Amino acid sequence: MPGASRPAGGAEAMPDPWGVRRAENLLTTLEGVLSARVVTTPLGEVSEIHILASSGLSPKQIVRNIESALLAHLGLKVDHRKISIAQTADVRPIEALERGAVREQSLRRAVLFEDFAVATAQRPHHVAVTVTLSYQGRTETATEEVADTARARLEGSAQAAAKVLEKFLERHSVVVDGVRVVEALDKTMVFAVVRGIGGRDARILTGTAEVGENAERAAVFAVLDATNRWAEARRVS
């Protein structure tokens, strides 16, 4: 995708499975961050993160906030040594207004990951998978009870994410056609195929997410990756 990533060394851009722009937009919503630039290698790995920040927070605190935000919202673990912080006390009023507008627009559009949990279900050999997402300050949760197997837990996580998304949509549905763990570019990824349905229109959507803490959690991010633009265009409410 043109402009979706910035490979280091001027190499040709490779497909970006988790979204550089998404990460940069997320980082600009953090306290004290004025701008963010994520640099990737030709293989799509994060090589550098450059941050321009105000002088209100210490660089160490900003780095911790960045690590936490990337892990919580994108399932992405980044070595703190790859994050460089430049701070300034000189911020023009118009620039501050522009940053506030960008931050507000980013938060207004993004469906954010809030929580994921797996608990023992009442039925023997079953578990309850619970996914919590938020949009514009509104938080919704859905739970799927599935057999306690790796494949069922993966599919249940994706199904629960789809159910939460439907709560934010007025007249559209999200159906999970399939979700799988795949190996690509020396990474373990979760690949999700979902259908966005509204009236007579059905759209096939695909998304990916790198496996961080576990594959089930990554399945939630893969569904979000697949539906992000489609849901936004249908006025998530």
Task: Offer a quick outline of the entry.
With 237 residues, the protein is α+β, with helices and mostly antiparallel strands. It has two domains: 8-109, 2-Layer Sandwich (GMP Synthetase, Chain A, domain 3), CATH 3.30.300; 112-233, Double Stranded RNA Binding Domain (2-Layer Sandwich). It has five helices and nine strands.
Identify low-pLDDT runs.
1-18, 101-109
CATH topology of the largest domain: Double Stranded RNA Binding Domain
Instruction: Please outline the major beta sheet.
Output: 3 strands, mixed
Q: What gyration radius follows from the Cα positions, in whole Å?
A: 19 Å
Count the E strands. Answer: 9
Mean pLDDT: 80
| CATH homology-level superfamily of the largest domain | Alpha-isopropylmalate synthase LeuA, regulatory domain
Q: Approximately how much beta-strand content do the residues carry?
A: 35-45%
Total domain count: 2
CATH-defined architecture of the largest domain: 2-Layer Sandwich
Order of helices and strands: HEEHEHEEEHEEEH
Alpha-carbon distance between the termini?
A: 28 Å
Structural class: alpha+beta
The CATH class of the largest domain turns out to be: Alpha Beta
Helix content: 25-40%
Number of helices, where a helix is a run of at least 4 consecutive DSSP H or I residues: 5
The gross shape turns out to be: globular
Strand order of the largest sheet: 1-2-3
Polypeptide structure, described:
- With 237 residues, the protein is α+β, with helices and mostly antiparallel strands.
- The protein has two domains: 8-109, 2-Layer Sandwich (GMP Synthetase, Chain A, domain 3); 112-233, Double Stranded RNA Binding Domain (2-Layer Sandwich), CATH 3.30.160.
- 33% of the residues lie in helices and 36% in strands.
- The protein has helices at residues 20-27, 59-74, 93-109, 150-168, 215-233, and strands at 33-40, 46-54, 83-88, 112-120, 126-135, 138-147, 173-184, 187-198, 201-210.
- Strands 1-2-3 form a three-stranded mixed beta sheet, covered by helices on one side.
- Helix 4 (150-168) packs parallel to helix 5 (215-233).
- The longest helix has 19 residues, at 150-168.
- The model is unreliable at 1-18 and 101-109 (pLDDT under 50).
